[in-house]
Design goal:
Elements lengths: L5 H5 L3 H10 L4 E5 L5 H15 L5 E5 L2 H10 L5 E5 H9 L3 H12 L28 E2 L9 E2 L1 H14 L1 H10 L2 E5 L6 H8 L10 E6 L25 E5 L1 E2 L4 H10 L7 E2 L18 E7 L4 H8 L9 E5 L2 H8 L2 H8 L2 H15 L11 H8 L6 H9 L1 H8 L3 H5 L6 H4 L18 H17 L3 H7 L9 H15 L6 H10 L7 H9 L1 H7 L4 H11 L5 E3 L8 E7 L10 H6 L4 H15 L2 E10 L3 H11 L4 E3 L1
Parallel strand pairs: 1-7, 1-8, 2-3, 2-6, 4-5, 6-7, 9-10, 11-15, 11-16, 12-13, 12-14, 14-15
Length: 633
């Protein structure tokens, strides 16, 4: 193939440039800003590879299960394998149990690898995992002494395997001629090392393609960009820039270009049918505003804007944290249980004290209270003590719980708020972090939601009662049962769980029973919350409210977007310094990228609200938004 360079390459569009690199055997990177249609190009490239190389397989990895399904729906072909990155890695190393076991031993004995440690032994012997009945397993939780690894450990282990055993790269390259990574900027450095460094240890050839946007890297512990690998030499990654914007109106594109820090400048699309064009094929102007006030009153800001915030599909209010949304969305009680339980935090403090001080007393038959009495002097912090003082009945209950059971209770807001869907037909894939109780409540509410929205066929497939339907009378009973369940009124979560079980709508299964036994403390707190609060949580996570966190909105788009600039006590971000271009470099960069993501969600109107900004912040806002668009409300 004749080499194409310089201006000749510029004559090709992004798709043609990528195909040129593929045919030349080059690894490549498609860099595209928000709304540039990167996923569209990814799908184009996959289809072309399948067409041109009909005997070769294509692997496509992306960040979420939702993105996996989107790509699978666009390209349905036997030669395409679409997964999340973690599932892809595990699928390709899980059969090499001998190597897995030896690598885990090596990592556990490496002082620099702090995440992989077996506390029961100082030096892990080579045969430590040999007697495991099921070998090394990958699950949602970590139990290393039993050979069970979780999310983070998988990446460390896979990286070590591909570095240590080049034959794995041989096998993987033979299996997949093409490996494409979507949203590459959210990928761990460990994964990038596998594909761009450890793969070089193999003499076999394949092509790695990356799709993404360095400016939309808003998660910690990710590669962020591929600057260290980009170039024009033999084994470097060739960058292709996708500069047209098909989503945002002109004013938002102009703002986004001012916010970018990597030199990529977006232009309007040359497709007159692009979503951001009007009926005459002209780029929409759009509307941007920077609003501020001396008193923090979001409702007044909404009234000023005059948008229909009940239209949750087209209008969103973006806040930094779930905590800032909890009261607005009506989920404060559940949020406090999963995020602010001072008794469980005190329990964690005691557990850490025992571990840090090498106390090897057998506490297994003791209660939490007896453990506290034995240790003496492991006191709660002031915040923990305040919670205990405000909730003496919770503390008394916890003190009487068996230490072995209570100490193993792990609670985190992700168990409540994670919005990934768990595919029930594939339990081996790692999906939602929701705990068994929240998953059960989601099953109940899905029944209620489907019936209430007259989606009767889907309801019949979802309800556990489907196995009891033999005649018309059974259907009448089901109708009465679900309609009784819909009328939740002031019923508690426990009441609804029992009613759904007794009526056969959603049966209590072993997973929920296990939760009630092993996490009785949490279940006792959640069961007394009104079920209608859980319904509000369901609506929030399913996108039926105007509220979203700024992180969760990535990849989405809405007609109207209101961004609330409030750090919410989170030191990882600083919106004031964003406008002053000041402060810690890492915090500034993190805030710049999140702000860019938020602004580029808008298809028509964008409003930013900042409470009590300084004069310097206002001056910068006028520079970015235009003086006429900076308004005091």
């Amino acid at each position: 193939m004749a080499e194409i360079v310089g201006s000749d390459m510029e004559e090709l569009d992004e798709f043609e440039q990528i195909i040129y690199h593929i045919n030349s055997g080059n690894n490549f990177l498609l860099s595209g800003g928000a709304g540039s249609g990167k996923t569209y190009t990814l799908v184009q490239v996959i289809k072309k590879c399948i067409e041109d190389y009909p005997t070769s397989k294509v692997a496509c990895m992306t960040y979420t299960n939702a993105a996996v399904k989107e790509i699978e729906e666009r390209v349905n072909h036997k030669n395409l394998n679409v997964t999340t990155i973690h599932d892809f890695l595990w699928d390709n190393i899980k059969h090499f149990q001998k190597e897995l076991k030896q690598s885990l031993v090596s990592l556990a004995n490496d002082e620099l690898i702090t995440r992989i440690k077996i506390s029961t032994v100082d030096l892990v012997p080579n045969d430590f995992f040999d007697e495991l009945e099921k070998g090394i397993q990958y699950k949602e939780y970590l139990r290393l002494q039993d050979g069970i690894i979780s999310h983070d450990e998988l990446l460390i282990l896979a990286n070590h395997l591909f570095l240590t055993y080049p034959k794995l790269s041989d096998i993987l390259k033979d299996r997949f001629k093409f490996i494409f990574v979507d949203e590459y900027q959210d990928t761990s450095k460990l994964v990038i090392e596998i594909f761009l460094e450890h793969f070089k240890l193999s003499d076999k050839k394949n092509i790695i393609g990356f799709f993404g946007d360095a400016m939309q890297c808003i998660y910690d512990n990710t590669v962020g960009n591929l600057d260290a690998y980009k170039g024009e030499e033999n084994d470097e990654v060739r960058e292709v820039k996708k500069q047209q914007n098909r989503r945002n109106p002109k004013l938002v594109i102009d703002l986004a270009n001012r916010l970018r820090t990597d030199g990529l400048v977006q232009t309007e699309s040359d497709d007159e049918n692009a979503p951001n064009m009007d009926e005459g094929g002209v780029l929409k102007t759009g509307n941007i505003q920077f609003l501020y006030s001396d008193i923090n009153n979001i409702q007044e800001i909404k009234e000023y804007l005059g948008w229909d915030f009940s239209d949750s599909k087209n209008t969103k209010e973006l806040n930094l944290t779930h905590n800032l949304i909890a009261d607005k969305a009506g989920i404060r009680n559940l949020m406090n249980i999963y995020n602010s339980d001072g008794v469980l935090k005190y329990k964690n403090r005691v557990r850490k004290y025992i571990k840090d001080n090498g106390i090897d007393e057998d506490f297994s038959e003791m209660t939490f209270g007896e453990v506290l009495d034995f240790l003496v002097g492991v006191n709660p912090t002031n915040t923990m003590q305040q919670f205990i003082d405000d909730n003496p009945e919770l503390y008394d209950f916890a003190r009487n719980q068996n230490w072995n059971v209570l100490s193993k209770i792990y609670v985190d807001k992700d168990q409540l708020l994670d919005d990934k869907k768990q595919s029930e037909d594939d339990e081996n894939k790692k999906g939602s972090k929701r705990d068994a109780l929240i998953r059960h409540l989601f099953k109940i509410e899905t029944n209620i939601f489907l019936y209430s929205n007259k989606r009767y066929n889907e309801f019949l497939r979802a309800t556990d009662y489907r196995f009891n339907i033999r005649n018309i009378e059974d259907k009448r009973v089901l109708k009465a049962s679900i309609e009784s369940l819909i009328d939740v009124g002031e019923k508690t979560i426990e009441h609804v769980i029992i009613e759904a079980n007794e009526n056969g709508i959603c049966l209590i299964d072993d997973k929920l029973e296990g939760f009630k036994t092993n996490k009785e403390y949490i279940f006792n707190r959640v069961k007394n919350v009104k079920y209608k609060e859980f319904q509000k949580l369901y609506n929030y996570l399913e996108g039926f409210t105007p509220f979203s966190t700024q992180h969760k909105t990535k990849g989405a788009e809405f007609d109207n977007v209101l961004v609330i600039l409030d750090n919410g006590g989170w030191n990882n971000y600083n919106f004031k310094n964003l406008f002053l271009v000041a402060g810690t470099e890492s915090v500034l960069e993190r805030t710049q990228k999140l702000f860019y993501v938020c602004c580029t969600r808008s298809k028509e109107k964008l409003a930013i609200y900042f409470n009590s900004p300084s004069n310097n912040v206002i001056a910068k806002a006028k520079e970015w938004f235009g003086e006429a668009n900076v308004i005091k409300v």
